[in-house]
Amino acid sequence: MEELIPLVNRLQDAFSALGQSCLLELPQIAVVGGQSAGKSSVLENFVGRDFLPRGSGIVTRRPLVLQLVTSKTEYAEFLHCKGKKFTDFDEVRHEIEAETDRVTGMNKGISSIPINLRVYSPHVLNLTLIDLPGITKVPVGDQPVDIEHQIREMIMQFITRENCLILAVTPANTDLANSDALKLAKDVDPQGLRTIGVITKLDLMDEGTDARDILENKLLPLRRGYVGVVNRSQKDIDGKKDIKAAMLAERKFFLSHPAYRHIADRMGTPHLQKVLNQQLTNHIRDTLPNFRNKLQAQMLSIEHEVDAYKNFKPEDPTRKTKALLQMVQQFAVDFEKRIEGSGDQVDTLELSGGAKINRIFHERFPFEIVKMEFNEKELRREISYAIKNIHGIRQVIPIFPVLHSGY
Fold first, then answer.
1. Which of 197, 272, 279, 345 is buried most deeply by CB count within 10 Å?
2. Radius of gyration of the chain from Cα atoms?
3. pTM for this structure?
4. Between 279 and 397, whose confidence is greater?
5. Maximum distance among all Cα pairs of the chain, rounded to whole angstroms
6. CB-side neighbour CA atoms (13 Å) of 239
7. What is the pLDDT averaged over residues 76-92?
8. Cβ–Cβ < 8 Å for 201, 173
């Protein structure tokens, strides 16, 4: 059973290399939450290292496929940096930032193209998580005005899949009913069958309040329940507080808090990691038969497609004509997308395509029109001939001005 998650990790890497050509949905856990929910701290606590980019605004701008692998030695590898081992986790952070900017540009844009990161460590359990951009309401910098919609659409690409478990991260010091993560999860999982709740910032709740009813699964029940965690504060992070020390402080918090001490054994980061490892392993086991059938069906389809090329003759004129038509059609589709601004790749350095044409028409064209000198009588004559010519043999119906009767 322990080999199931590493097996899916290898499939994940293979499918990422294939890009869009593979339509199979792998069993996975997607991490969803608002910008200040504490997602990054939860993931860093799992690894025991500071390795994720931090800052204001949207920090995670591409999906991060984080594969944790139990190992005697500690290092990290990126799928896009084959053969290179990272032992300095500050370098891991810089590489995530650089690879993000390479695809999205420097203007805080987002992209659904994932970054695959595998971390080997004796301190982790076998686990795979997909960290998604934090839900935001207000665009910053050069971000498009519909950034909230774009992020929501990206998150939906993952959590609508039946094979995807949802790790909904919500801070305890906000109203649970208004949780962005739980709202999104409920949209695609109304029965709460695929959702695992994580409640952060329990230590920041107002004095005299607690999240006991939530953690005991009484308030907004989920089939897989809730786990509470206490992360490092921003002050702790700025002060370079060790994650190991933070974990000890988290344990002490649950054991000493009157509202949580009776459930302390079911709270905290180590327990959450065990729960996710078990849940993902069971989820893979449950979905494996159906996944195997889909994989075999796709392999059969590809084999049939390969068979069709056994008697392929490149010099056949009909083949050439068909290929040319397909390329022309694809060019037409790509050109239309470029003009409409709906292409897969968006230029972040300069205006292009339809945006450039739009700018010319609205900013330059009016000034060029004003500069033109023309004979009004001659222009009217040309317009008259043009109207008659486009009607051909059909009779032109004159349009008379409306005469006002005075009342």
1. 197
2. 29
3. 0.72
4. 279
5. 95
6. 8
7. 92
8. yes
Q: How many alpha carbons lie under 13 Å from residue 59 in its C-beta half-sphere? A: 18
DSSP secondary structure of 310-359: TT--TT-HHHHHHHHHHHHHHHHHHHHHHHHT--SS--SSS--HHHHHHH
Task: For residues 100-110, give the mean pLDDT.
Answer: 80
Instruction: Report the alpha-carbon distance of residue 172 to residue 134 in Å, rounded.
Output: 17
Query: How do residues 299-352 score in pLDDT, each as one tens digit?
Result: 898 888 888 777 777 777 877 888 889 999 999 988 888 888 776 666 666 777
Work out the angle between the directed axes of helices 180-188 and 147-159 (0-180°, nearest 10): 50
CA–CA dist 142, 106 (Å, integer):
9
Residue 23 is given by DSSP the state: -
Per-residue pLDDT tens over the stretch 22-52: 556 778 899 999 888 889 899 999 998 989 8
Q: Tell me what pLDDT residue 141 has.
A: 65
Separation of first and last alpha carbons in the chain: 88
- pLDDT value at position 229? 96
Domains, the chain, in order of start with CATH, read 4-296 (3.40.50.300), 353-391 (no CATH)
Other Cβ atoms within 10 Å of 388 Cβ, number: 11
- Taking alpha carbons only, the member of 273, 269, 257, 200 closest to residue 29 is 273
Q: At what angle do helices 39-47 and 243-256 cross, to 10 degrees?
A: 110
Identity of the residue numbered 312: F
What is the spatial distance between Cα 362 and Cα 162, in angstroms, rounded to a whole number?
A: 46
Residue type, 72: K
